[in-house]
Structure formats: C-alpha cells, structure tokens
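A reminder before we start the practical. When you read a complex entry, don't treat the lines as separate problems. The point of joint prediction is that each chain is placed relative to the others, so the output describes one connected object in space. Small molecules and nucleic acid strands, if listed, are placed in the same frame. In the example below there are two entries. Take a minute to note the order of the lines before looking further.
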Amino acid sequence: TQLLEQSPQFLSIQEGENLTVYCNSSSVFSSLQWYRQEPGEGPVLLVTVVTGGEVKKLKRLTFQFGDARKDSSLHITAAQTGDTGLYLCAVRIGGKLIFGQGTELSVKP
Amino acid sequence: EAGVAQSPRYKIIEKRQSVAFWCNPISGHATLYWYQQILGQGPKLLIQFQNNGVVDDSQLPKDRFSAERLKGVDSTLKIQPAKLEDSAVYLCASSFSHQETQYFGPGTRLLVL
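Here is the predicted structure of the whole assembly.
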C-alpha cells in the first residue's frame, strides 16, 4: 500500500483546459511537497506546503494543503504544452523523502 | 551554478552483467542521494550519504547493489549482477544539508535484457 496515493494516474487534455490532480493519504504530515518531472529529466521542486488549509500560487498553478494535513491538490489553470510532465507529491518521513506514484499529464496543442 | 551531473545517460546490458553509474553533486552539497524510479512509479530512495558516510541504506539491495562516496564529493552506484527488474531510471540528488531542498540530476536510464 502506497503512503501517498495520487490521482488520476494519467491525464490527457487540450491546451487551455483546467485540471486538478490529487495527493491523498490516511496519515498526517507536517509538510508536503510537489515536484514536476519533465521527460528525460529529474524532478524539480515546485512548492512546499506546511499549514493545514494553506494555498500557494505559482503563476497558473495553485497548490492547497488539506485542513487535516492528510491530502493536497494541484490545480492548473489554462494548461499549456509546457506543463506536460509527471507531477509528484512527496513527504519527509524520518529525514527521508517518500514520493507518490505521480500523475502523468499530457497537454496537447 | 552547475547542476547535478550524471553519466552515462543511457545504458543497455544483459542480465547478470555488471554496471556502474556516476554522479557529481552540486559543489558544496554535503548530502547525496541515489534513487531508483521504476516506470510508472515515483522515485524510491536507495542510499543517502552525508559527506562520505552512509546515513541510510535500508532500501538498498545489498546483495547486488553497492555505492560509495570516497572523498565526500562524487559518487558511484554499482549493480552486480543485474536482474531484469533492475530496469529503471537511477536518479542522483544532492542538498546542502539533509533538511534542505534536494536537486536532482537528469538520471541514468538502465535497460536490462
């Protein structure tokens, strides 16, 4: 059983559409991170959320940490082809980063 | 500032052969990590170094995998002998300290036939 369950696993949309991906767990975390991994590259940190209910924005990306700090969502407004990639959530457990399995996003022109 | 460098970028080997991957972290980063990312999954930590000492190798299959960071800078990860299930991307990451942001290299894509 995965500590972090991400959904959907795959998402294919047209440029200009909006989307939301989710990262869920039954455990409580002190913080949660989101990464984007482009094809052929390593993951890059996008944001860290710390406070329950916290909302952070990064241009067209909006990240929210659940009130109970068990889940998080990533919303992309007006997706662009450059948003294509694998979106990973991760938490620190005992100094170690634990990743979800990721959401593979494909944005078509 | 140069990022994390890894080589080779791609490797194809037969099962039971050996293979080695190299990583050069960002200058000044004391902590170095090796992750295995199987297709369709997130990265899984194999081993973490603090300078040239091992901090965590609980997920490293020690019967076939080994890693070293002799001078506390660059590192090598070796698999001997390789199995089909070792086909994956091997990512190296580094951070200034163990609680700081991790920066990932581009990875080495290994295919075991």
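Discuss with your neighbour: The CA atoms of residues 31 and 98 of chain B lie 6 Å apart. What might explain this?
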